[in-house]
């Protein structure tokens, strides 16, 4: 007899429960569309376990997930991959203070670096990483992102070989790769190579917002991972989100292979172009990237929105569509709208990584107007979201190029505080 998991336990609870006198205080007793799923929004009641000291149905669900991701343990988070990545940085800091990151990292990583006082160095070329590590000492981990927003994957096998050579951990932000575990047509899941990997299930699977995992593939790290989850995670985890994780995992186990076979067939049928837009080759075919060189993708996406088509993101001359088993039936119609959509030449804006001088990173935080930040040291990560990769990092001295970047991207920039720049006094 299989162990009872979260979704089943909630279904059983709801059969028995007639009146609620506990939080959440909607008490599943309000009508209307907003509250259609409120009966699944529960708290730590008898039979429903407790995420932060789990030894019942939540633990059973985590054990089930760990087998799928070939991990020693899979820790559920309902506060998103941001919290899971902060916890991963904490795990690494417990082993040492210095890390390398390969390629762009999400702001959650850099926030973790700031909060835990980690020393992080960056390198873009995996081939050069070996040389950097040979000159360095006491590196506790290599961090990388795979896949990124555009469905591009790193060579994780090579990175693991390098990590093993120098006795450090490999930590992968695989927020956009949770679905890789469910089809041989997709790239290898990050947990096949990483000591720690983070997945955002809500990004590519049928989960409510905040659904995330930290897959721990080193038994020695399990207790430390639990410690940092308990330190950083809310004590009121979303049971609605946890139930959706349980349901989505079962759905993918049963149907994932046929789901992604169908998605691949539909994507392949597009050919190389959709009107003026070129289909960009990706490692993950379920991440559809359309590019029209030199065009303003945001302008075209605004037209799509006017026709009821909402996409994941635009980036300069690219539009990004996340394809799932639950939206693939709309793709053909959406592509017809793309074909008729107007385009215009895009403006040149600052989007590249800036080479900024590093400050001390120490001091009292103040908030100033953008122009007044010139020459000061940033106290926050600043970049464009999506994809959420900082261009200006905490500790960088803000020069005229950085000021121009902030102004050019003022409608899409993250890291400002009520329109002001956080700087160190």
Plain-language structure description:
With 425 residues, the protein is α+β, with helices and mostly antiparallel strands. It folds into 3 domains: 6-252, Aspartate Aminotransferase, domain 2 (3-Layer(aba) Sandwich), CATH 3.40.640; 269-340, Alpha-Beta Complex (Aspartate Aminotransferase, domain 1); 365-424, Molybdopterin biosynthesis moea protein, domain 2, CATH 3.90.105. It has 12 helices and 18 strands. It has helices spanning 6-16, 57-68, 80-93, 107-116, 126-135, 156-166, 201-204, 222-232, 239-268, 297-306, 331-340, 400-408, and strands at residues 73-77, 98-102, 119-123, 139-145, 169-173, 196-200, 212-216, 273-274, 277-280, 287-291, 313-315, 318-322, 365-368, 377-378, 382-384, 389-392, 413-414, 421-424. It has a 7-stranded mixed β-sheet with strand order 1-7-6-5-4-2-3, with helices on both faces. α4 links the parallel β2 and β3. α2 (57-68) packs parallel to α9, α3 packs across α4 and α5 runs parallel beside α6 (156-166). The chain is globular, with a radius of gyration of 23 Å.
In summary, what is this structure?
The chain is of the alpha+beta class.
Q: What is the topological layout?
A:
Elements: H1 6-16, H2 57-68, E1 73-77, H3 80-93, E2 98-102, H4 107-116, E3 119-123, H5 126-135, E4 139-145, H6 156-166, E5 169-173, E6 196-200, H7 201-204, E7 212-216, H8 222-232, H9 239-268, E8 273-274, E9 277-280, E10 287-291, H10 297-306, E11 313-315, E12 318-322, H11 331-340, E13 365-368, E14 377-378, E15 382-384, E16 389-392, H12 400-408, E17 413-414, E18 421-424
Parallel strand pairs: 2-3, 2-4, 4-5, 5-6
Antiparallel strand pairs: 1-7, 6-7, 8-9, 9-10, 10-12, 11-12, 13-18, 14-18, 15-16, 15-17
